Amino acid sequence: MSDPRLQRRLGTSAAVFIGLGSMMGAGVFAVFQPAAQVAGAGLLVGLVIAAVVACCNAMSSAQLAAQLPSAGGTYLYGRELIGPWWGFAAGWSFVVGKTASAAAMAVAFAAYAAPAEWSRPVAALAVAVVVVTNCLGVTRTATATRVIVVAVLLVLAVVVGSGVVGPEAGSTGVASLGFDASPLAVLQSAGLLFFAFAGYARIATLGEEVRDPAKTIPRAIGVAFAVAVVVYAAVAVVSLLTLGADGLASSARPLAAVVETNGWPWAATLVRLGAAAACLGALLAVFAGIGRTAFAMARTGDLPRALDAVHPRFATPYRAELLVGAVVIVLVLLVDLRSAIGFSSFGVLLYYVVANVAAYRQTREHRRYPRAVSVFGAVGCVVLMFTLPPTSVLVGSVVVLVGFAGRAVALRQAQ
């Protein structure tokens, strides 16, 4: 078997921006509305829970990536430290869940960037452009993501600024932060909000393309995660203070509504443009992660070995990128994927269960954090998985079982 290798071209700054590009995407503009629908102002507690679980996952991922800095992320960690079936569970959950997530991000981008009648063709075009960008090289992906992340952070600063110094700032008042949500509702909101935190894993999936990965990956994951937590907390509090829980739950474009309510109507267009840019940036980073995980699975035979190919000039897993791009284009043209957040969260949470179990299995020489971090992360992921909406749990479970059955058949035929 050939053993093509990717090239180490990314430094800490580029890795941080790829992680931020994945987190500062569709999530921050879209996820607070469904979280408010299930928990009201209790989403603030859900945000804390999601952040704590995600922090444990980030620490486990950083520890694993320092030991095993190759493409594939938790797929590789599961195979090496637990067993092939665990690795397959992680890789399959990630590829399928993030493929649906990528399609949803493309549809969200088109909703902000084009008239309704053109949304599907524009979404498909956006996917095609992103795939070509990724195939041209990871440094181009990092450069494009850096520009988009800076633009999105500036837009979010305007949103938060309107809630602090705008003429109608805090119009709904501190009373809107009170809540009477049930524990189950809070946990459901945490599971949905976890969708917005999952991007730091993209740094680990690029482990074969990062310079000095033992130092760069943990540092980049920590910085990207810390920035995301601060930004999400600020946006959530300002949104609730401005719109109230009911207003946040009923608004299709909540952050645009925030600036309008706070007396900055001129900023609504800016926010819509920022949302479109954020979705595009997240799409760039998500495709980079999906393609490299599929490439790693093909390298070991868990996906067709034809995908185990690196472009001779651009050093990218171009076949995997092109295949995933084709699947996503079909999805955005034929399927309504606006409710994909729950399904994506199920797949990503299962992915991190494997990551935490793998980190627990690391030997003392490779462990940077106490084993309790991995235990808490794994338990937290399982709890959030099974408090998601029932449809998300059912569909996610069926898809995982189909993948396992397919692998079992392939192994039997290979004997």
UniProtKB/TrEMBL annotation:
It is found in: Cell membrane. The chain crosses the membrane at residues 12-32, 38-59, 85-112, 118-137, 144-165, 185-203, 223-245, 273-295, 316-335, 341-360, 372-388, 394-411. It is a multi-pass membrane protein. Its main location: membrane. It comes from the Bacteria. The keyword Transcription regulation does not apply. Keywords: Cell membrane, Membrane, Transmembrane, Transmembrane helix. This is Amino acid/polyamine/organocation transporter, APC superfamily. It comes from Plantibacter cousiniae. The lineage of its organism: Bacteria, Bacillati, Actinomycetota, Actinomycetes, Micrococcales.
